């Protein structure tokens, strides 16, 4: 099952978001970060082979400095 985003959602808003990486049994394997390149969203993680699902976190990470900032998911997804 693929998640759905609101129509017209700007994927760039997902860039740098932390995600939980889950296996086929729903167990958390570790963390990853989303990277947006044009129309594609990649997951940067060392758990790629076992990854079967993601859980969007409420932190954004700068992958060059590893600085994190909190993100309000309602604001991220709906602009509220």
Q: Can you walk through the features of this model?
A:
- By secondary structure, the chain is mostly beta strands.
- It has one helix at residues 73-78; strands spanning 17-22, 28-37, 40-44, 53-61, 68-70.
- The mean pLDDT is 89.
- The chain starts with 16 loop residues before the first strand and ends with a helix.
- It has one domain.
- It has 1 helix and 5 strands.
- It has a 5-stranded antiparallel sheet with strand order 3-2-1-4-5, with no helix packed on it.
- Strand 2 and strand 3 form a beta hairpin.
- The longest helix has 6 residues, at 73-78.
Q: How are the SSEs ordered, and which strands pair?
A:
Elements (H helix, E strand, L loop, with lengths): L16 E6 L5 E10 L2 E5 L8 E9 L6 E3 L2 H6 L2
Antiparallel strand pairs: 1-2, 1-4, 2-3, 4-5
Key phrases:
single chain, 80 residues, mainly beta, 1 helix
Helical region count? Answer: 1
Give the amount of beta strand, in percent.
35-45%
The backbone outline, from C-alpha atoms, is globular
How much is the average pLDDT?
Answer: 89
Helix/strand order = EEEEEH
A few lines on this structure:
This protein is mostly beta strands. The protein has one domain. It has 1 helix and 5 strands, in the order βββββα.
């Amino acid at each position: 099952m693929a998640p759905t985003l609101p129509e017209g959602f700007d994927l760039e808003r997902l860039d740098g978001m932390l995600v939980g990486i889950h296996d086929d049994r729903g167990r958390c394997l570790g963390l990853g970060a989303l990277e947006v390149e044009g129309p594609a969203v990649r997951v940067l993680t060392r758990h790629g082979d076992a990854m079967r699902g993601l859980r969007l976190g409420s932190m954004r990470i700068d992958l060059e400095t590893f600085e994190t900032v909190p993100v309000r998911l309602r604001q991220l997804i709906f602009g509220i």
